[in-house]
Here is the input.
Amino acid sequence: MKRNAAAACWLSVLCAGLGQWYNRQYAKGLLFVLIHAAGIYFITNPLLPHLKGLMSLGDKGQHLEKVGKIFKNVPGDHSVFMMIYGVLAALVVLLFVFIYILNIRDAVVVGRRREQGAELRSLNSNVFPWTLLAIPFLGVLFFTIMPILFTSLIAFTNYASPNHIPPKNLVDWVGFATFNKLFNMNVWSNTFFGVLSWTIIWAIMATVTCYFGGILVALLINQKGIRLKGFWRMLFIVPYAIPQFVSLLIMKNILNEKFGPINQYFRAFGLEGLPWLNDPFWAKVSVIVVNMWIGIPVTMVLVMGILTTIPRDLYEAAEVDGASGWMQFRNITLPYVLFATAPILITQFVGNINNFNVIFLLTGGNPATMKYNNAGETDLLVTWLYKLTLDFNQYNIAAAVSILIFLFIAVFAIILFRRTRSFKEEDMIQ
Amino acid sequence: MKPRLLFSYLLLVLIGIAALYPALWTLLSSFRVGNSLFSDHFIPTQWTLNHYRDLFRVRADRAIPYTTWYLNTLKVATASMILGTLIQLLTAYAFSRFRFKGRKPMLMLVLILGMFPGFLSIMATFIILNTLDLLDSIWALVLVYASGAALGMFVAKGFFDTIPRSLEEAARIDGAGHMKIFVSIILPLSRPIITYISLTTFAGAWVDFIFARAILRTPEHWTLAVGLWNLVDSYNSTEFTLFAAGCVLVAIPITLLFMYTQRFLVDGLTAGASKG
Here is the structure.
């Protein structure tokens, strides 16, 4: 009676790699033993202090100390460094734990195969995809997952200017105080709810105008009897082809209240001209209109693509039944287009909630207002959090706002995710 | 002609004017003598190429190192194109061709992370780079762009999925290894998707403003997006024609690239959302 699996399992629990050794996979075993040793060394030596640092975030900031006869500025604990290293340390520890568990599972699986007298499979088929993925994975880990983790941590600290900016001062854990501030403290909550409601109004308006505008333009071009369809399509795509930051900065100049050409034309007709970007109401109108200029071509291209996929025989059948052009449009074209583009509506809505460029480059969130704290009348949540980070150093509030946007998007992401059939049915193609 | 058609043509012309006006106006302004935003005529009365020449001239009375910006942007865009495309192809290939342990959860992770715009956690990226003293370097920018590339791999994966497996199996029987199959069978077949990915990552890095402004601090490290934004901001309307010339030179390569890639446009737009 062979009991290879249990023996290998216990050996691997004792020390990673022993089980593999017992299973006569010497190279793999050696690798695991080395990883185990490295793990023990790193966790006891540099990692543990870092983890402790993550808990405490330092006990003494930069301070004056008496050196000889004069007081000197002595660098103290740098809370943010401690946090970054702490998170990294935690990730490394998790990685070791993961490898450890992997090692036990591997020992058991191989042991069981030996009990059954099956052949040992080579390592190769499983390792190659992971070698391909190693670099992309590290990139995503450090520049996508780490920042997200870090954002969630910062939201629970008091990391903000002027009183808690390292290296001069320490940063402390404050629990939900930041969220509390954001929701209940007037200075912040007025701004937050004001910006939030404009963000939602903006997202709805921007999505609806671009969506229906795009459908209308596409249908306009696709009418029977319109010539040079390709030419019109090409012409209308121009706004989309120009880099956004260029066209938006140009728009900013075109809408300039004093010297811009639009107001110049108004004056040529004897009108006053409008404060396009300087009045709260008109600024909001301007961003929506400019966004239409940028966004309509996208929907137009999509809808034109969909129009070509409508089966011809539907129209032929309709004609045989004596349906008029309008009836065909009403009962075939429109339902088909609306149905096919519905998922795009969700992506565009989410995209508009985060439509940083249009707002930031066109108005910069201005016109400024006394009502809001560090935000202007047209600021979206994303532009506000950008300003909070780069211009005002209110990191904790910015982090809390990011988390809220994350949660908000997550709802839509789940809806979209369920619709994405390519994920569920991917193996059907072959 | 039927009134409906006449009306439609009228609308089309109006939309066409609206679509072209800003670009045309900027182009014409860049050839206009003088430097102000204000002008009496749409078509300049006097033409000049001075603004273009001026862009590349170093002048002591203002800080507009346009040549440096252009080179920086080129460097950033090219480097992130090469790295980003490579990363995206490798990721897509691994997910498309191999059924390895942990594949499903990883795929799920990519899909979910990909739905959140990268700049939402810009605050943390900024602080991390700041504390590690990596701010103000164009290579940090490249690092950020390239490492996010893996998340956009679904278009490429969709493409790889359509390459028949029998090709590889035949090669495997002939004794080709994993790397050999990837390099000499898969890559040559995927030229269209490689073109598409490299052009879009190039253009993406070329036009990005958000990360560039957050990471690059000093004028000599700026990319064009940040530089032009500052130009409009600090010189307001006094150097407008210069700005217009700068815009034209930035927009030309991207607009040309776009016109070239627009046949892929619909695929790219719908890839994440409603594929299948």
